[in-house]
Amino acid sequence: MTDISTQKTTRTQGKFDHLIYVLRENPVTLLAFIMFAFIILSALVGPAFVPYDPLETNASRALQAPSWKHWFGTDSVGRDVFSRVIVATRLDLSISVAAVALSFVIGSILGSIAGYWGGWLDSVLNRFLDTIMAFPLFVLAMGIVAALGNTIENIIYATAIINVPFYARLVRAEVNIRRDAGFVRAAKLAGNSDLRVLAMHIFPNALPPMMVQVSLNLGWAILNAAGLSFIGLGVRPPTPEWGIMVAEGANFIVSGEWWLAVFPGLWLMFAVFTFNLLGDGLRDLVDPRKRT
Amino acid sequence: MSLRAAQSIPVVIGVVIISFLLTRALPGDPAVYFAGAAADEASIAEIRIALGLDKPVIQQFFIYVGDLLQGDMGQSISSGQPVASDLANRLPASLELTLVALILSCGISIPLGILAATRPGTWVDHLCRVLVTAGVSLPTFFTGIVLIYLFYYLLGIAPSPIGHLDFISLDPDHITGFYLIDAALIGDWETWLGAAKQLILPAITLALFTLAPIARMTRAAMLTALSSDFIRTARAAGLSNRKVLYVYAFRNALLPVITTLGMVFSFALGANVLVEKVFAWPGIGSYAVEALVVSDYAAVQGFVLAMALMFVALNLVIDLLYTVVDPRIGFVAK
Q1: Which of A39, A292, B105, B264 would bridge B207 by S-S if both were Cys, CB 3.0 to 4.6 A apart?
Q2: Is B149 part of the contact surface with chain A (CB cutoff 8 Å)?
Q3: Burial of A169 by CB count in 10 Å (0-12 exposed, 13-18 middle, 19+ buried)?
C-alpha cells in the first residue's frame, strides 16, 4: 500500500518538476499561462467589475476619445468601450470553447471508430472529411450559418463542423498505430470488451497531442466566430462582442474615431495570440523529444 | 495525370451533395420563404410545385444536379439576376485581389524564409519567428481597418476604401475583368495607376495574413534540405554557395512550400470575404455578405459551391505542379 502511494507521489512530483523545468526554460510559455489566466479571469468576473453598464447609452458623452474616465473611449451612442470589450470576453470565449468541445467530442468518436475498426467505416469517414476539407473553411461556416439560421448556437455548430476533420484525423492516426500494440492485446486477453479497450486503454494516448490541437484551435475558433459576427452573422447588436464591435467601429475609422474598432480588435488579437503561444508551449510540454 | 484528375471526382460529388443539403436546410419551409410575406396557402402550394419541393428528395437532388450541369444556380432575389452570372461578373475582382496578394506575400515570405534558414539565430531568423507568430493571430478584418486608419486617415497617401476604382476614373473596357490587365491592354495608364492604388491596401491586408504559414514552411523545408546529405556532397564537390542554395536546396524545399500554398489559398479565399467587406471591394465575397444580410440564400449557396469547386480545381493544379517541380513523384507508380 505505502509502496504504491509513494510511487504515485514521485510520479506526480516528476510531472510537476517537468512543468517547472519547461516554464523556467521557456519564459514565453510562462507568459502565455499568465495571459491565459488573465483572459479566464476577465471572462469569469469581468462583468462584475466593469465601471459602466455595457448596454447603457448616453448621448451626451458620445464618441469621446480615451480618457481617465473612459479608458477606451465611448462609442457613437455613448457606451463605454472598455466595459463592452471586457464583458464581450465571456461571450467570445464561450462560443469558441463550446465549438471546440463539440468538435473534440465528435472528432474523437469518429476518429476512434475509424482508426480501431478500419474497413469501410474508415473509407466512408475519410471521404466525408475530404469533402469538408474541400471547402474553404470560413466559407463553409458562412454557408452552414446561412442554411441553419442566423443564431449564436448555429455559429457554434458551424465552427464545430469545420474543425471536426482536424480532430478526427489526429485521433484516427493515434488509435490506428496502437490498435495492435502489446498492451492492447493484453487488455483484450484480460477480458475487456473492444469498446472498453478503445476508450480506456487506447484513446488516452491520443490526449496529449489533442490538447495542443485544442489550444491552437481555440484561438482559431475565436477568430472564426469574430469574423462571422463581423459580417453580420450570429451575434446581434447591441450585444457586446469583439467582431461586431470592430464592424461598428469600422464606420468611424475613416473619420478618425479609431478607438471604437482598435480596442476590441486588439483584445481579440491578444486572446488569439495567447492561445497560439499556449499551444506552442503545450507542444513543448507534451513532445517526448523535448523531454530530456 | 488522368488518374489524379479522376480522384477529384468523388470530392466534387461530395461537395455537390453537401451544397444540396445546405440548400434544402433553409430555415423553415423554402416554399414559404420564396413565396414572400403576403402569400396565402394556395400560392405557397403553387411555389412548392414550381420549385419541385413536392417531389421526393432523391429526385430533387437529380434536378438540382441537372440544373448545375447547365450552369443554373438559381435566381438571386436581391439582384434579380441568375446567381451564376452574378458570380461570373464579380469573380475577376476577387481573383485579382487574391492573386496580387499571394504574389506579394510569396515575394516577401519565401526570401525571408530562405534567409532565416541560412542564418539561424540572427536577427533575420528572429524577425521571421515574430512575424510568423504574430501573423497567425491577426484578424484580417482588423488589420484592414488599422491600415485604412494609418494610410488613409493619418498619412493620407491611400485612396478612400470604396472599391475597385475611385469615382473619377471610368471602368476600363471589359476584356478579362482584371482591371490592371484590362487597363494595361488598352494602354490607359492613368486608370491602371488608379486601380493599383485602390488595390494596394486590401492586397497588403490579405498578404499579411498569408505571410506567416508560407514563411514558416519555407524556413522549415530549407532547414531540412540544407542539412541533408546531398547538400554536403554538393558543397564537398566545390559548388558555389549560390548554386547549392538555389539549385539544390531550394528545388527540394519547394515541394512542401507548394503544399502550404494550396492550404494558404483556402485561407485566403475565406479571408477574402472579410477583406472585401472592409474595403467595399466588389468581388464575390462582398456579394455573398450582401446576400446574407438580405437572406438571399440562393446567392449564398451558389457562392459556397463556386468557392468549393474553385478550391478543388486548385488542389488538382497543385498536385499536377508537383510532378513538374519534382519528377520523382509519379501518380502511375503509386
Answers
A1: B105
A2: yes
A3: buried
Q: What is the DSSP string of A42-79?
A: HHHTHHHH-SS-TT---GGGTTPPP-SSSTT-B-TT--
Residue B285 has pLDDT above 70, yes or no: yes
B155 near A CB under 8 A? no
Within a domain: A124: yes
Option in A128, A135, A253 nearest B145 (CB): A253
Task: Answer yes or no: are the C-beta atoms of B304 and A131 closer than 8 Å.
Answer: no
Query: How far apart (Å, rounded) are the C-alpha atoms in residues A284 and A278?
Result: 10
Distance in Å, alpha carbon of A224 to nearest chain B alpha carbon: 9
**Which of A230, A241, A269 to probe the B interface (max B CBs under 10 A)?**
A230
Q: Is B315 on the interface with A (CB under 8 A)?
A: yes
Tell me which of A123, A127, A135 to substitute to probe the interface with B (most B C-beta atoms closer than 10 Å). Answer: A135
Rounded CA gap, B271 and B316, in Å? Answer: 21
Number of domains present in the structure of chain A? 1
pLDDT reported for residue B329: 65
Query: Phi first, then psi: what are they for A136, rounded to 5°?
Result: -60, 125
User: Which residues constitute the domain of residue A191?
Assistant: 95-292
A:B CB pairs within 8 Å: 150
Residue A248 resides in a domain: yes
Residue at A25 is within a domain: no
Angle at B17 between CA B16 and CA B18, to 5 degrees: 95
C-alpha cell belonging to residue A22:
519547461
Whole-number average pLDDT of chain A: 80
Quick check: B201 contacting A, CB < 8 Å? no
How high is the pLDDT of residue A14? 67
- A97-132 pLDDT, tens digit per residue, is 999 999 999 998 988 888 888 788 888 888 888 888
Residue A177 lies in a domain: yes
* B99-142 residue pLDDT tens: 899 899 889 888 888 888 887 777 777 777 777 777 777 888 88
The Cα–Cα gap between B187 and B176 comes to 14
Gap from B186 CA to chain A (nearest CA, Å): 33
User: What's the CATH code of the domain at A206?
Assistant: 1.10.3720.10
- A83-87, B123-127, B306-310: the lowest-pLDDT one: B123-127
